[in-house]
Amino acid sequence: MSHVKPVLHLEDIVKTFPGVRALDGVSFSVMPGEVHALMGENGAGKSTLMKVLGGIHQPDGGAIFMGEERVVMSGPLEAKAKGIVFIHQELSLAEELSVAENIYLGELPRKSFGRVDWVTLREKTDAILKKLNVAFNARTRVGDLSIANQQMVEIARALTVDAKAVIFDEPTASLTDAEKVVLFDVIADLQREGVGITYISHRMEEIFKITDRITVLRDGQYQGTLETAETNEEAVTQLMIGRKLDLSRNPSHHELGEIALEVRGLSCGSLYEDVSFHVRSGEVVGFYGLVGAGRTEIAETLFGLRTPSHGTILLEGEDVRLNSPADAIAKGISLVPEDRKGQGLVLGMNCRDNMTLPQVDDLKAGPFVAEGAEISIFDQYRDRLDIRTPGWKQKVGNLSGGNQQKIVIGKWLSMKPSVLIVDEPTRGIDVGSKSEIHKLLRSLAAQGYAVIVISSEMPEVLHVSDRIVAMYSGRVMRTFTSEEVTEDSLIQAISGLGGDKAA
Amino acid sequence: MVTVSRREIGSMLAKQGILIAFALFMIGFTLANAKFLSVDNVFSVVRSSAILGVMALGVTFVVISGNLDLSVGSMMSFSTIVVLDLHDKIGPALAIPAMFAMTLCLGAFIGFLVGYLRLNSLIVTLGMLSAIHGLTLTYSGGQNMDIADKEGTWFSVFGQGAILGVPTPILMFLSLAALLGLVLAKTPFGRKVYAVGGNGTAATFSGIKRARTVFTCYLISAGCVAVAGLIQASRSLGSQNTVGQGLELEVLAAVILGGASLMGGVGTIFKTVIGVLILGFIQNGLLLLGLPFYFQFVVTWIIIILAVWLDIAAKRGKLWSPIA
């Protein structure tokens, strides 16, 4: 047995919330110089465990050890003081301040009379930025950076303290491949310095590329720890979801109906230009491209949130103007938006009310909302989409990400749209719910819906689409059928290479 | 398991805290002064709270929609002066609808600025507080307004009448509360108010017309102010043109005391009624204990701070949580 002590060891952690045992005797430890993946579906308890570690939640049982010493994390500041650094998926930066100020916020170097020592600040910052190999400097205003670069600032922040353990929570969610390489280099550097790294991610290929061990949680319970080198994706997935994952492609094509939606020469300022495509009922059209390629903006235009500067939108052959979401909804277009919590749901409202919100004007008994009709709509879609919630009275904010997304999908299906647009339907959602949602999208098309799926994940687009529209920088580069598409040609098209766009 | 039940007690306290506080106040004051819970005193408290209460009902809609209305006090002065002035000029039967129309126009104007021009509601209504005050003074030429024939008008029925021994202001307050309570809790419009205040972006993405919803909330608020002005004018049949001054804060105190969140999306009419009664009984209780009347302005402030503090503490789970 090795005599190296783990830098961080959580033992038998128990945490209960009203009605839920969120963590049920979970143990987790990180050795110095190790990258240890923490995996599990959404709602499995990963975030709760990290919140216990960060002092945001106090555990109801169990203990936290750092080295030999048992510690109590009274709050985030104490966790930081003890050398535990979190790099969150969601950014917490002051946009109006410079990169240097953000990185050293609260610990700015001082000169006499409390004046900020700008020279030292910039030198220290530039030294860290150099390590990260980024294209901006200490003086850049954070608000001017892309999301990916803001993420790098967040990471730079972690490098300023004498970190013993660093927790990365879905760090690559908004990074490009080139940026990922830099991130993995940074992780390797930290590893060499003996820092223990916890890496939370849903992306298997990353997990297998950089981690040493994998610990899996399911429903708040510890499922086991695997040596990465001795296991494979299938085994991990099985541990996560308790069954085998169906990864086979779905090549089924059903009878396509009439053209439900056609867009001709649509432009919206500098966001996208001269976009043309059509969707038939019974068809899934995938929109694939990099973040910022203009896909979401097209969806927002079709949903009446943006006014196009040129071009026409035809619904079942008829030229329409969509001035507001209410307009779009009335004409049979539904949008499951990109940002589930910000745009999709009223988190403080219960499940039923969220689901029936767009049609609350139509569900009336006299002057009042027909609550019976609402409950039966909720029950119907809860059963159909397998939404797991104690009941309709549950606040949506208390559900897991996958179940929240199903509420949003249920909300729009219950409107019986003719065109359903889903923007990043599985972002931040665990593997199990992901494949459920994919199946759902396919079956919706089979029932005659015209479905548009916007996604940044290639397997997702390949898996669900009948045709794929590849976009680059606001333009449609090429439209593929599912037979002709290959991964290479798709990547080329979305990188602005080799597209055969008719000019 | 112990922790679970303790949590449940905690969340029960946070939810029902206002009713418990109400009960404690009542018991405390009753022990201190036997007169406190006498029928006469209770009636007098509810009656004197009716004007404030009616205004609080409307402001509840505005606050749940995620906005503020600080103009209700000076708008109430406006309604009172207008209806008293028109009473002698065109008769009460026409004066009342005319006053309602003018007050609703003010509400519509505020609703337009906040809902359609998307201006900050704090600034808009704070500005309107001053602007409407100026309007009232200009309208009245700075003079107090009195009805010439105080004995011979049926107009006094709204403020001084009674049905089956219950004063009309109380009846109007409670029936308006019942009506608006149903509107907020049971109608599609009410649902939209919660959605717009809870998450405006999600409401837009659900096809809800936010501007129209916010606009309607300010119309309801102005309508309630008109009713309050009617009761005020009818009760005194003459008035200073500053009669509503400072009421905006008391109204806000009652609404917050009732548990409506200034962040929007949370609150009910029933709880606002409780908030109004608590405020009324506290002020009355302090008078009975011999504190000077003017001290109530300080008390209002203390109540606002305590209510906001306890509300946020219940959410954070602790009383002491400075900005980290």
TrEMBL record, chain A:
GO MF: ATP binding; ATP hydrolysis activity
Domain ABC transporter: 8-244, 242-498
GO CC, alphabetical: plasma membrane
Membrane-spanning ranges: none
Annotated membrane topology: Peripheral membrane protein
One Pfam family cited in the UniProt record for this chain: ABC_tran
CDD domains cross-referenced by the UniProt entry: ABC_Carb_Monos_I, ABC_Carb_Monos_II
Classification via InterPro entries: AAA+_ATPase (IPR003593), ABC_carbohydrate_import_ATPase (IPR050107), ABC_transporter-like_ATP-bd (IPR003439), ABC_transporter-like_CS (IPR017871), P-loop_NTPase (IPR027417)
Protein name: Ribose transport system ATP-binding protein
Automatic annotation (TrEMBL), chain B:
A GO molecular function held by the record: transmembrane transporter activity
Listed CDD domains: TM_PBP1_transp_AraH_like
Signal peptide residues on this chain, from the entry's feature table: none
Presence of keyword Lipoprotein: no
Positions of transmembrane segments: 12-32, 44-63, 93-115, 122-142, 162-185, 213-231, 251-279, 286-310
Cellular compartments annotated: Cell membrane
Membrane-topology descriptor: Multi-pass membrane protein
Main location: membrane
Origin superkingdom: Bacteria
UniProt cross-references to InterPro entries, sorted A to Z: ABC_transp_permease (IPR001851)
An annotated GO cellular component: plasma membrane
Keywords: Cell inner membrane, Cell membrane, Membrane, Transmembrane, Transmembrane helix, Transport
The keyword Cell cycle appears for this protein: no
Pfam family, one: BPD_transp_2
Protein name: Monosaccharide ABC transporter membrane protein, CUT2 family
